[in-house]
From TrEMBL:
Keywords of this entry: Signal
Gene Ontology terms, MF aspect: efflux transmembrane transporter activity
Top-level taxon of the source organism: Bacteria
One Pfam assignment: OEP
Organism whose genome encodes this protein: Arsenicibacter rosenii
InterPro entries per the UniProt record, alphabetical: MdtP/NodT-like, OMP_efflux
Name listed for the protein in its UniProt record: Transporter
SUPFAM superfamilies: Outer membrane efflux proteins (OEP)
Position of the signal peptide: 1-19
Family statement: Belongs to the outer membrane factor (OMF) (TC 1.B.17) family.
Length: 427
């Protein structure tokens, strides 16, 4: 176990995670939300792979800047029938031709191709930051789920321990003939029900642990315990924001929306390129001919160009114009989708916030004191088993509902962060 702890600590040190709140307690990795976000950015493999896609497109952009290579052609007489020489070297006994060609792109084709390559790099950046937005949302959402699942398990742990003590006491009293079997059976049945409910939560805890370990790229064998301060749990609500400001932030930070706009821009660039491709390119040529038929050492220059009589790239130009209209419509539709996402997330957060603010937090503390008295009175047989279990069940439900309400509130704020594309809450 000590070796495992040293390996984990060493890995975190290598990746530069120096936050004081990140600790290894026993075999558990304890992380605050900011620590988890930092570890995620450093370690997530999917994020790293997508970031390499940006570098790949930058390489294509560099390639688009390069000029076309020149070409050279050499012709040598292999055999002179008059002098009976193979590959004659004497100038008087052989003819040799050397041609040099250079292709010149006209109508700004090179610059237009470079513009498309730069837009491809922008699109790769859009994909990276949109993936970062999506995975960050998954990280924070899973972090909260895991934290509040642990809190709920604490409720079950406390109830099961208390009820187990009561069952043990009643088992002793039943063996002495002091309590009826039906009361003991009801207690055992409720205890079994609590254990079964806890088991379902443990399954959810396992799923959240696995998801978080994958996002952080840490060993799935190391349990992760999220740490959440009271300030983070009770942060300012959605009431301090307004929809117009959130929509403005979405315009700036939703890289999936930027991606659709960049695609529309690229279609405009493609139309310009297709029109340029209708213009023929120019080929410059220089020729040297030794022992040519005209003079002994012939030097000549030439110019070549295709004649655009039939193929003027008409079909590709028309298709590019149609693609511009299509891409613009898609971008406009997606902008409406983004606005709907922001409005929906904001409305749901308001509803959750209203419910959270109307909940009297003193109710939980009062119920804690009440359940202790109820348990004591039941063991003294001042109340019957039905009343005791009713209080016990009400206590459990109130604790779990308040726990879920806290989680729902933070999740609703994360939904706004996701819809806007940046961290507005719990930065």
């Amino acid at each position: 176990m000590k070796r495992l702890i040293l390996l984990v600590v060493g890995a975190l040190t290598v990746h530069g995670l120096q936050a004081a709140t990140t600790t290894i307690a026993g075999d558990t990795l304890q992380l605050s939300l900011s620590d988890a976000a930092q570890l995620f950015r450093q370690n997530n493999l999917t994020l790293m792979a997508t970031k390499l896609g940006v570098s790949e497109n930058q390489a294509y952009e560099y390639q688009a800047k390069l000029w076309n290579n020149p070409s050279i052609y050499i012709e040598q007489m292999p055999y002179n029938q008059q002098s009976k020489e193979i590959m004659p070297v004497k100038q008087s006994n052989s003819e040799q031709v050397i041609q040099y060609q250079q292709l010149l792109l006209l109508a700004g084709k090179r610059n237009k191709q470079l513009a498309i390559a730069k837009t491809n790099t922008d699109l790769a950046n859009d994909r990276f930051f949109d993936l970062l937005r999506t995975l960050s949302y998954q990280l924070r959402s899973t972090f909260y789920d895991l934290y509040y699942t642990n809190q709920a398990l604490g409720v079950y742990r406390e109830e099961i321990a208390t009820l187990q003590q009561t069952v043990d006491l009643y088992q002793q009293q039943y063996d002495k003939g002091n309590v009826p079997l039906k009361d003991l059976t009801r207690l055992k049945a409720y205890l079994f029900n609590l254990i079964t409910e806890r088991q379902q939560l443990l399954k959810k805890l396992t799923d959240d642990q696995a998801d978080l370990a994958l996002l952080l790229n840490v060993s799935p064998t190391i349990p992760i315990k999220p740490l959440l301060t009271n300030n983070e749990a009770n942060q300012a609500g959605v009431g301090q924001q307004n929809v117009s400001e959130l929509l403005r932030l979405a315009e700036e930070n939703r890289y999936d929306l930027k991606g659709y706009r960049d695609l529309a821009r690229q279609e405009q660039q493609n139309l310009a390129l297709q029109k340029a491709l209708a213009v023929p390119d120019l080929t410059l040529q220089g020729t040297y001919d030794r022992n040519a038929g005209y003079i002994q050492n012939y030097f000549g220059v030439g110019v070549g160009i295709n004649l655009p009589f039939f193929n003027k790239n008409q079909g590709n130009i028309k298709a590019a114009a149609v693609r511009i209209q299509s891409s613009q419509q898609v971008a406009n539709a997606y902008q409406m989708q983004v606005e709907n996402d922001v409005q929906r997330a904001y409305t749901k957060a308001q509803q959750t916030e209203q419910l959270y603010r109307t909940f009297d937090q003193r109710f939980v503390d009062d119920f804690n004191k009440l359940i202790q008295g109820v348990t004591t009175n039941y063991r003294k047989q001042n109340i019957d088993v039905v009343e005791f279990l009713d209080f016990f069940d009400s206590y459990k439900n109130s604790q779990l509902q308040y726990n879920q309400l806290q989680n729902d509130r933070l999740q609703s704020l994360e939904d706004i962060n996701f819809a806007v594309g940046t961290t507005v809450f719990n930065k």
